[in-house]
């Protein structure tokens, strides 16, 4: 994209820019620990400071008090982690045949919904969120219904 294209695109955004309020302070604060219904809104291949390659999946909370907030889940491709990466991708409905296929994962993951259990951890002196586990929305709803049904057995 050349300089003229960039300037043209910026001009196209001028009206929206002027009509948009700044995000509220604290919007980057970690979410409270808990379960959240989320949807995948982005996925990209990333490299860590240690040269590990991974897939960073960005989720947006779609229901509740924290609707619109974001959570990231990094799937690091180390020999030890491959079984867990494959499991997590399968939960989201994507089964890559090779690690190289992860470069094509984004369109398969977009808009997939899941229930995320989000915790907090300290990292480099700051509190951040960590996805502890997640399940497909349908499976989580079925498990909740089953638990409710069990409450009424005599």
TL;DR of this structure?
The protein is an alpha+beta fold and 154 residues long. The chain has helices at residues 3-18, 82-91, 106-109, 137-150, and strands at residues 34-47, 53-61, 70-76, 113-123, 126-136. The chain is built from four helices and five strands.
Describe what you observe in this structure.
This protein has 154 residues and is an alpha+beta fold. It has one domain (28-150): Beta Barrel (OB fold (Dihydrolipoamide Acetyltransferase, E2P)). It is 29% helix and 34% strand. It contains 4 helices and 5 strands. It has helices at 3-18, 82-91, 106-109, 137-150; strands at residues 34-47, 53-61, 70-76, 113-123, 126-136. Strands 3-2-1-4-5 form a 5-stranded antiparallel β-sheet. The protein is globular, with a radius of gyration of 19 Å. The termini are far apart. The model has no long low-confidence stretch (mean pLDDT 88).
């Amino acid at each position: 994209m050349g300089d003229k294209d960039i300037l043209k695109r910026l001009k196209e955004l001028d009206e929206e820019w002027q009509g948009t309020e700044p995000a509220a302070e604290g919007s980057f604060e970690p979410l409270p620990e808990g379960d959240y219904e989320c949807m995948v809104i982005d996925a990209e291949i990333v490299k860590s400071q240690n040269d590990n390659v991974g897939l960073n999946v960005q989720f947006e909370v779609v229901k509740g008090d924290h609707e619109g907030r974001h959570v990231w889940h990094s799937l690091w491709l180390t020999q030890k982690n491959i079984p867990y990466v494959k499991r997590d991708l399968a939960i989201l409905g994507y089964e890559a045949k090779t690690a190289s296929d992860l470069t094509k994962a984004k369109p398969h993951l977009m808009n997939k919904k899941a229930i995320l259990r989000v915790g907090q951890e300290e990292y480099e002196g700051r509190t951040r969120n960590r996805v502890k586990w997640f399940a497909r929305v349908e499976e989580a709803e079925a498990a909740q219904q089953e638990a409710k049904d069990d409450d009424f057995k005599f």
